[in-house]
Design goal:
single chain, 262 residues, mainly alpha
């Protein structure tokens, strides 16, 4: 019988699967860094106080991308092209979630509603990231090769999630509550579909790299579908609730530096 820990251990121990894992992760983080950087530059005048926090969010994402690339370099590996079907960030954009890259590439100020869409997208996707990194931290937080990176990224993702909660609650208090809830629900339902599709694609690629027997790949795919069924039925609610976080002003200071090897 396999577990999440044993599966990730298998990926970690094989150079080619580790190479694919880090390449996919680095690509998504770097894209998130670019998006946050553009949003920071385009935030409307009425919300300019948010710009440093958004920039900090982007700096964290850029740092994560460098960390994953540094982990590859440390092992003497180079990144591989990210298969399009595993590109979580790109697929979310195609599903109409978050702010379109076409909008971010223009030099036109965003609106308050655009900022709320960005924060809602962050609220949903950072929930997923925080949960995944928490799992990796439990299993590999003390690992000699990846433990330090896992702990740092996990802390950052928790900060990003706290920030999204706090800012959305601020906008809700200013009268945007209905729009926020509608946007969060749309984001969550789209995210769970994209997460399912990306998980199936990553599982298929890993199965080919690691030579998994057909029964193992089928069982893992069934597990992905089971997670989707739960999320579609009830699990998405955890992505749309808002509560004041214990970490207040989580992105109010400077970004923490990457580990020395990065």
């Amino acid at each position: 019988m396999f577990s999440a820990k044993s599966l990730f251990q298998e990926i970690l121990e094989d150079d080619e699967s580790f190479r694919l894992f880090c390449s996919v992760a680095a690509g998504g983080e770097s894209q998130g860094g670019w998006e946050n950087g553009r949003i920071s530059a385009l935030v409307p005048q009425s919300e300019r106080a948010m710009a440093p926090k958004i920039a900090r969010h982007g700096a964290d994402e850029d740092k994560h991308g460098r960390i994953f690339n540094a982990l590859l370099k440390k092992r003497g590996l180079t990144p591989v092209p990210v298969p399009p079907e595993t590109d979580y960030t790109m697929l979310l954009e195609r599903a109409g979630i978050g702010l379109a890259h076409e909008k971010l590439q223009r030099d036109e100020p965003l609106t308050v509603r655009d900022v709320i869409v960005y924060l809602s997208h962050s609220r949903v996707t950072e929930q997923r990231a925080s949960e995944q990194m928490d799992m990796l931290r439990r299993y590999f937080g003390d690992h000699p090769e990846v433990g330090r990176a896992v702990r740092m990224i996990s802390d950052d993702e928790d900060n990003h999630l706290a920030y999204a909660h706090e800012e959305l609650l601020r906008f809700a208090a200013a009268g945007h509550g209905r729009f926020i809830q509608r946007t969060l629900r749309e984001c969550a339902l789209a995210e769970i579909r994209v997460y399912r599709d990306v998980s199936l694609a990553v599982t298929a690629h890993m199965g080919r790299v690691l030579g998994w027997p057909r029964a193992k790949s089928a069982a893992l795919a069934a597990g992905v579908h089971a997670v989707y069924a739960y999320d579609r039925l009830a699990g998405w609610h955890r992505m749309v609730s808002l509560r004041m976080p214990a970490r207040r002003n989580a992105l109010g200071g400077p970004a923490t530096p990457a580990p020395e090897y990065a």
